[in-house]
Amino acid sequence: MLRSESLFGKRETTSTNSPFSSASSNGNTSTPTGGNVTSVNKPAQYPSSVSTPAPAQAAAEESGSKLTVGPNIKVKGEIEDCDTLVVEGKVQATINCRVVQIAERGAFKGSAEIDLAEIRGEFDGELTVRQKLVIYASGKVTGKIRYGKLVIEEGGQLAGDLQVGGGHEQKELLQKTA
Length: 178
Hints:
This protein is mainly beta. It has helices at 23-26, 55-62, 168-177; strands spanning 2-5, 11-14, 29-30, 36-37, 40-41, 66-69, 74-79, 84-87, 90-102, 107-119, 122-135, 140-152, 157-164. Strands 6, 7, 8, 9, 10, 11, 12 and 13 form an eight-stranded parallel sheet that branches. The protein has a three-stranded antiparallel sheet with strand order 1-2-5, with no helix packed on it.
């Protein structure tokens, strides 16, 4: 049997038998049009070429709602009830979510209140990161930026109105003064 990786990392099982052999002998099911449907088996273990996910990716995979804006896709508006937003295209929006990941070719313009941000592409606007802002070497962040913790890889760019305190400290300060 030959195995090949499909789009989602699952292995497709195909047979070297003739396409005219019975479904019971090779695991394939014939369709009314004469084609074969190949069964998909979940691999017992990921191939060694797949790297382990970053902490934010691991947290994102465990969470419920995830929105991925793919390459060459443009989105405008307001994004709500999203645990994780992955930006590979262009987004112009207002968001409030847990995790934002901007890919190298991704761009976000607008307002965002989030717990964790990983920026490899561009962010322009008002950004409040309650916990940790990570800017990688290819990342560029401009605008009004508030953050709890900040990590900038060599080559990463950060410009604008910067302030430590991603939200928790500001909320506590407002409660004390009220």
